[in-house]
Amino acid sequence: RTMGAWDLELRRCVPDLEGRVQGMNLRLQGQRQTIHALEKRNADLTTLVSARDMTVEALGRKVAELGRRLKLAQAGLGDADGDPNPNDPSAAPQSKSLGAILATHRRAEAELKERVAELEAAVRQLREKETRARGVAATFRSHAAELKKKLNDAVATKDQGSKNAAHQRARAESIRSAAAASER
């Protein structure tokens, strides 16, 4: 190929490569925004986890209190509400049965386990999404770096081609001048 053909091809390739790099940069920026959104979601979920932990602790205390009341009731030391022994004539009548306390205890325990499972699933899902997004962002960064390298190589080749063309023109001019001088 002639230098002019190389120059034309390079002039055609460079804008295409620049456009591709710009497109990759836009995609990379989109991925950064996605990662930022995921990090915000992660922070929100961490806050939610803390709130759930407090709820879990509160439910745990409630379960422990219900267990304590149940033991007292079983031992005959108090009723299901933790009040003094119901056999004491001065004590108020029982408002809750032992079965109701057990049912409440089981419901609270089941609810606690269900909430913990939901929370663990949400955190696991978020971590998976974050890992995927980081992988995609790394791939885009790698592609952008490759395209920038290709663009730089193409620009360097174009510059070298321009230098070679200028050298060839100067040489041709020198030959023409020498030929014109020898004809005189």
UniProtKB/TrEMBL annotation:
Entry coiled-coil feature ranges: 102-136
Keyword Thylakoid listed: no
Superkingdom of origin organism: Eukaryota
Name the UniProt record assigns to this protein: Uncharacterized protein
Low complexity composition-biased segments: 76-93, 175-184
Organism field: Phaeomonas parva
Region (Disordered): 76-99, 152-184
Keywords (A to Z) from UniProt: Coiled coil
Keyword Protein transport: no
